[in-house]
From TrEMBL:
Family the entry assigns: Belongs to the aldo/keto reductase family. Aldo/keto reductase 2 subfamily.
UniProt name for this protein: NADP-dependent oxidoreductase domain-containing protein
NADP-dependent oxidoreductase domain sequence ranges: 21-342
GO molecular function: oxidoreductase activity
Pfam families: Aldo_ket_red
Amino acid sequence: MATCEKVEYRFLGRSGLKVSNICLGTMTFGGSDDDVAVYQCPTRSDEDKAHTILNRYRELGGNFIDTANKYSYGKSESIIGSWLEKQKRDQVVVASKVRFPMDKSNVNAVGLSRRHMIESCEASLSRLRTNYIDLLQAHIWDNGVPLEETLRTFDDLIRCGKIRYFGVSNFCGWQMQKVAELTKLMGLNPVVSLQQQYSLLCRQSEWEEFMVCRNEGIAVLPWSPLKGGLLSGKYKRDETPDPLTTRIGFIHTDEKKALSVAPAWSKYRDNEEFWKLMDVIGKIAANHGKTIAQVAIRWLLQQDVVCSVVMGATSVQQIEDNMEASAGWQITEEEMKQLDAASPRVTYYPYEMIWNLNGPDRFNPFNNSVKI
């Protein structure tokens, strides 16, 4: 296999596992006609198209593939599985997730209970056609189950070889800290990653979640780094996105379907701050001979908590363009400041006081603390 020299590999948190800093997200693999709008989007990939994307991603040096049992109700995992059995398994890092309901007729086919987690893991292994999952992630917090039960189950799955590491996704700050502390208290394998929505248009997790990650050595895996395509540079203020070729255009036909991963165009079309941000990104892209999307991805890769950016792709061209952000160039310190200034970040109490009163003069590099 030809490997692109520009691809950068990073440790997945405090684990010894190295992954490419561009992770291939596969939420758009497969599809279904249920009520989840992103699975109905016309840009989703069938098995042949998905395999073409996977093959090109590997040719470019990518080794990290992210999916979930919920994505198209198992179809994404099945598509990956039919591809994975033709690969050298030890050269690919596969991540999946558990939490959301998989059978509407079964009240126990949901959540982070021991029963559902074990059943879901076995089903994912079967669909993925592998005997282990490198990283299994809790897709979202579950208020219905004691956290101790969830963490012990993750640990048992690691001990019996079904999974290698565990992570979480879409957790808030206090939840992250509780996970970190309980694994220490109970003597369990630690959480290695947080997969979280993060982009120049979504920075809320910087306030607490990423502070915990810095303190505890937890890797951040940003999802929706282009905010559903808004940061791709392909949208124009005076043009309505195409509903047949873009996710945002598809959502625009019925904005009740809007989600964080597929925002409503009306929210940004007349938003002056958004267009100012796009102007700043555009100028920086021109400085480096890169695309707007590549600058948005590179901004994430230069954040100290980020290990790998989860990027979806609906074509080979997209995956090739995305991989150009991986390595070999840097946004300058001044340009990073410009992007920070142009990017919306609402200041909530007490974070404003915490950040303003704990400046550089109160940062001690010998104290394993949060650098803000």
